[in-house]
Design goal:
By secondary structure, the chain is of the alpha/beta class. The protein is built from 14 helices and 20 strands.
């Protein structure tokens, strides 16, 4: 048994030892949008809305640099005890939440922990959640450093705008193994991209993050981009490693121990502080992203950045995608908002919507979705989707009355 503390309350859970230590938790947590809105500080670069879903907290891939190590709650349980949290019957909860909506954005498995980590082979929560979205004809995406299951691939193949992202840090297997405890081999990750492409699904390769002094050599990045494009990748997402302040000493020590890079090199590079994290200085990052854009252009593949900003006056931030992105949306694919009218079960794409709410934010026009809130590019909750859904139902009822 372990005790998990949340403020003044605590709960006890039985630890299940196999296949890896984990606990099963009942939860009423809800899907939600991005954590940050564009206002007031500009710290959002995610162009499209998403419904974020984490069926597991903690991930046995255990990437050295993962920012979830700095999070609390059940993430702390994994960091301190190596125990993954499984959210019991979460797919059924997601299904009930979707049933109550008439407007939905693309689902996202998973923004923090890998949906295809080994524990998923036992519980298959990721495949169950994918099925709920696809059965409603709502797009859904996943991001993984593991092997995409055949079931997941077959499911997203049924839905027009669903797609997959594969995260590949490096083609050097020894380096990959030093950066993460688990995950698929580099060869298997490249095969993931081939499998997505062979299924006629949009395939994204995330070279994310690039780690200074470890995976930032131009010739190696050239080889990686060419390899994944040959495998079928249609878009590249990249970033430079940032460091939560609470992790900096531990991360510097581990990078020095594993790769022989003196801590002082990272300390001299990571001088910019934004939103509780340290970022490599803007000159280094601009040079890195300019190089990546050149490499991607040369390989005839589009590129976007993930959560990369420039500090202004120490507080305001400006996204760098306007400077370096070569696609309409940061994930390379235009995914419209989906709405269902009347009592129908099936959601349908909104005509004229390209999914880029950040672009709508800067335009003085009514958005194609006819939901003015979405122009604000905010940090939305499930309650906001319910509020928009109620308005759509009201609008649909009025329209039906007029037709009668």
């Amino acid at each position: 048994m372990i005790t998990v503390e949340f403020g003044r309350t605590s709960k006890q859970y039985e630890v299940i030892k196999r296949p890896i230590p984990h606990i099963i938790v009942d939860s009423n947590k809800e899907q939600h949008g991005w954590w940050n809105g564009i206002e007031p500080y500009g710290n959002r670069e995610c162009t499209s809305e998403r419904l974020l879903i984490n069926p597991y907290n903690g991930c046995s891939h255990n990437c050295l640099f993962c920012y979830s190590h700095a999070l609390g709650g059940y993430f702390r349980v994994f960091r301190e005890k190596g125990i993954v949290t499984v959210f019991n019957d979460f797919a059924a909860k997601v299904a009930r939440q979707l049933d109550g909506l008439t407007v939905a954005s693309c689902g996202y498995l998973s923004p923090v922990t890998d949906p295809f980590q080994p524990l998923n082979e036992k519980y298959e929560l990721s495949e169950q959640i994918l099925k709920e979205f696809v059965d409603c004809n709502i797009p859904v995406q996943f991001t993984t450093k593991g092997r995409i299951s055949e079931t997941a691939l077959k499911l997203i193949k049924k839905q027009e705008h669903s797609f997959g992202e594969v995260s590949i840090l490096t083609l050097d297997e020894d380096t990959r193994r030093q950066l993460m405890a688990g995950g698929a081999s580099t060869d298997e990750l490249v095969r993931n991209i081939e499998r997505l492409a062979n299924a006629d699904k949009f395939a994204v390769c995330r070279i994310d993050p690039i780690i200074p002094y470890v995976t930032d050599k131009q010739e190696e990045l050239e080889e990686l981009v060419q390899k994944v494009v040959d495998a079928g990748a249609e878009h590249i997402i990249t970033s430079c490693m940032d460091i939560p302040l609470v992790m900096k000493y531990e991360l510097y020590n581990e990078l020095e121990k594993r790769f022989g890079i003196p801590k002082r090199q990272f300390e001299s590079l990571y001088k910019e502080r934004m939103s509780g994290r340290l970022h490599a200085n803007i000159e280094y990052r601009r040079k890195l992203f300019s190089m990546m854009r050149t490499i991607c252009d040369r390989n005839k593949v589009t590129m976007g950045l993930c959560m990369e900003f420039e500090s202004i006056n120490g507080k305001m931030v400006k996204g760098l995608n306007n400077e370096f992105m070569s696609s309409n949306n940061c994930e390379g694919i235009d995914i419209p908002l989906y709405i269902r009218e009347g009592d129908g079960k099936r959601f349908e794409p909104v005509r004229g919507c390209y999914g880029s709410c950040l672009q709508c934010h800067s335009l003085d026009t009514v958005p194609a979705c006819a939901i003015p809130d979405l122009k604000k590019a905010g940090a939305w909750k499930l309650k906001d989707y319910r509020r928009w859904s109620a308005r759509i139902k009201e609008r649909s009822t009025k329209q039906s009355t007029l037709e009668v």
